[in-house]
Specification:
disordered C terminus; globular; 17% strand; six-stranded mixed beta sheet; alpha+beta
Length: 166
């Protein structure tokens, strides 16, 4: 399985959209993977902790193995798969600010981004600008009139049929 198939890999998600997404999630240890905007071929591990987004660069070498930038003094480690790398940093005290706890999945992300985009689009719209849309009285009246006409027709037919019998 390629790291691109991981449900928390967001591809070319922008830094701003990533930050918005993690801040909206709002849980310490929330994380996702995205492509770096500034360094082609580099993957960013973005982690939320106390309203700050920490970004760690992940490099893939020619053999396909992964290496992550961590705090200085932490021994550099190489991982065969991205899953192995993520599994290591799900444990505390591994050289990043907080352990990885809550993956932010792609599907959730797209819904959230659409919602936040819609909120931005309507941010300047005031309540007085909204119009309540209800069926007009005329529609209700015409529907009622049709129903009453059918009902009246049925009563007339029944009355006529009864008169014929007796």
């Amino acid at each position: 399985m390629s790291f691109m198939d991981l449900p928390f890999y967001h591809g070319s998600l922008s830094k701003k959209a990533c930050e918005d997404l993690l801040i909206q999630k709002g849980k310490n240890g929330s994380f996702l993977l995205r492509n770096s905007e500034s360094a082609p071929g580099v993957i960013c591990l973005c982690v939320f902790f106390q309203r700050i987004i920490y970004t760690y660069r992940i490099f893939q070498n020619n053999d396909g193995y992964f290496k992550i930038e961590t705090a200085s003094g932490v021994e550099e480690e190489v991982f065969k798969t991205m899953k192995d790398l993520i599994a290591k940093f799900e444990k505390p005290n591994q050289g990043i600010r907080i352990q990885l706890r809550f993956p932010v999945m792609k599907e959730t992300a797209s819904k959230t981004i659409r919602t936040s985009q819609m909120e931005e689009d309507y941010a300047e719209v005031e309540d007085r600008d909204y119009v309540i849309v209800l069926p007009s009285r005329q529609e209700n009246t015409s529907q009622r009139s049709t129903a009453e006409s059918i009902s009246q027709h049925n009563r007339s037919t029944i009355y006529t049929n009864l008169r014929r019998k007796y």
